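# nightly structure sweep
# worker-07 picked up a monomer target from the shared queue
# config: single-sequence mode, recycle default, output format = structure tokens
# input follows
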Amino acid sequence: MRDRVRVVVQGGGRRGRWGALARLLWVGAEAITTVGVVVALLVVHQVWWTNRQAVAAAQEQVRELEHAWGAGGARQPGPGGGADVGAGADAGADAGGGDGDVSDVPVVEGASGRPGAGRGSVPVPGRSAGGGERSAPASAPAPAREEAYAVLRVPRLGLTVPVAQGVDKRTVLDKGYVGHYPGTAQPGAAGNFALAGHRNTHGEPFRYINRLRAGDELLVDVRGRRYTYVVGKVLNETTERDTGVIAPVPHSTVRPDAGYAEAGSYITLTTCTPEYTSKYRLVVWGTLRS
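# output follows
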């Protein structure tokens, strides 16, 4: 009888230990599942929901700009797609300098708002219909820092996005806007109208600019004027410190064979590459159609 009782007690002990282990494994599995769900939700929020919010806000900003321009007067396209300098072009390009930390955003490091950089000091080429030199209209005041003041349209990509002054991450780029580098030229002006935008998350306006090819149009609307740039060159990869890509005459300081050598009116689009990283920069260059 004693042996039988002893066996029963030992069996109960084994079942108790296995039961405790099973409960521990179950709790661990629940914890891992919970953590996985939380991480998945964070990823969905960052990759999907922030895109929806940013795209919606950016499109609303485009509508507000177009409404304001419509109330302000009729459209005044520059001849030949914008060889004339329009509203805001060649204005104080240093406005909006001193942006916040840009170490993890798709901009070129070291591109500060250097006063006078990118101003249209080179005469705009072209002549009027009567054969005389074309004169530029008086320039408007420079846009305020972080102010959306233009619209970029890329027909090949079906992209329409507002352009704001500055490349601050929180106040410009994370809103789904494209940011204008302080110190570079304004739309239509001689020099380099240089822009930065996210490639992934927060509206990702520049996600597919790697698909652009020579001859594609980049349209920039500014208060009733349209400037048409034509894609000329693409630099698939360069370092984040290659500041030459947004110089008045854009060129790469890393790859001397990439870029331009003559003064003119340029546009530059910059973003991160490869996707979902900020290791390198992808650059698209275009020239103003005359």
